[in-house]
Amino acid sequence: MNIKWKEYETAVRETVKRKRSIRVLSVLCIALAAGAGALYLYYHNPYSYPLPCMIYAFTGFYCPGCGAGRACYSILHGRIFDAFSYNPVMTVMLPLIGLYIAARLIDWAVTGGNHIDRKISIRMLTWILGIVLVYGVVRNIPVFPFTLLAPGGLAEFIR
């Protein structure tokens, strides 16, 4: 009986090790895909061929994500002010989102579980959602200080 238990224990360890290697390989593939996407965006000029926003196309209102493609393009080219003028909320939140995704993927690859989400406050997530929704409404108010929040509005104002 003791010999069978050791065989079982060894088999379980090998399975866990194999699954961890699959998780690590999956995370590396995700990172490679994200790098390929960043490389594509680096050479894809969204000023000439903009990514269409369906909300803007159908309603004429800017969604909270309008200008995010041009902002990411500007960040990749080191033009932080331009990125901020296209979408200030996304420019500020992008490092936080990237940090969360990296921490979550590393946690999953190493442990196979989700220990990161338990550390994030629901109250903080509610505040962030509220800020994004208010930003989406305020950037569509056609009065001077709010027009600066439209994609490229701040850059046009300064020039």
Automatic annotation (TrEMBL):
Membrane-traversing stretches: 21-43, 55-76, 88-108, 120-138
Keyword terms of this UniProt record: Membrane, Transmembrane, Transmembrane helix
One protein family per Pfam: DUF2752
InterPro entries (UniProt xref): DUF2752
UniProt key word Ligase: no
Name of this chain's protein: DUF2752 domain-containing protein
Lineage per the UniProt record: Bacteria, Bacillati, Bacillota, Clostridia, Eubacteriales
